[in-house]
Design a protein that fits this description.
single chain; ten-stranded mixed sheet; Rossmann fold; 33% strand; 6 helices; 24% helix; 10 strands; alpha/beta
Length: 215
């Protein structure tokens, strides 16, 4: 029995690790979903072997907006479609990294590009006092959350997690789907070199998708 229709705005669809395996990790935190994969940014996607590839958003019960190699600070036409989906959707939405940024931008916020990228495991402190470790890999930063409320920050990133005050929307700048297995798959597939992967201290306990976005 299918418990929900899950729409993944699949913005790393061209990548085997953070795309295919990242989405697999995200989906594993849902109970038996029917998965729809929408990648408006590319026609060259990886064959995941699961989910239904779609050309436009479909009726669904939940939306996930993933990370991306593109930047909100360098706006592209396909991003209009994603922003419009965020503005008009009535179902719960979660956003990861790029997803966090484009949701903020769609809801009146502002995103800028930093001089240097942020690629490391960093502590994240929530407003309730909870502190967790998370994988960051980004260069754009949300500097104005718009309609969203900021609920967590990191030393390099004052807006690390947000919620909407009236809509079921949660976002994080970090990558809770980035497990040790995903990093291994990134090296194996060539998405990441061993030197690039070495900056992430995966020995630390990391917050996951359920604890960060599905609470």
């Amino acid at each position: 029995m299918i418990d929900m229709r899950l729409l993944v705005v699949d913005l790393l669809a061209e990548r085997k690790a953070f795309g295919k395996e990242g989405v697999r990790e995200i989906v594993s935190h849902f109970d038996n979903p029917e998965v729809f994969l929408w990648a408006p940014h590319t026609e060259q996607r990886t064959d995941y072997g699961f989910g239904t590839v779609i050309e436009a958003p479909v009726e669904c019960d939940f939306i996930v907006v993933t990370g991306s190699r593109s930047n909100v600070s360098d706006w592209q036409p396909w991003m209009d479609e994603v922003a419009e989906l965020v503005r008009r959707a009535e179902v719960p939405i979660i956003g990861i990294c790029f997803g966090h940024q484009i949701i903020a931008a769609a809801l009146g916020g502002k995103v800028i590009r930093a001089k240097e990228g942020s690629h490391f495991v960093s502590p994240v402190t929530y407003r309730d006092g909870k502190q967790v470790n998370a994988v960051f890999t980004h260069q754009d930063h949300v500097i104005d959350a718009g309609e969203l409320q900021v609920i967590a920050s990191a030393e390099h990133c004052p807006i690390a997690a947000c919620v909407h005050p009236t809509r079921p929307i949660r976002t994080v700048q970090y990558h809770p789907e980035a497990t040790s297995r995903i990093i291994f798959e990134a090296i194996k597939s060539g998405d990441m070199t061993r030197q690039e992967a070495a900056v992430f201290d995966m020995s630390k306990p990391l917050i996951n998708v359920s604890d960060s976005l599905l609470v």
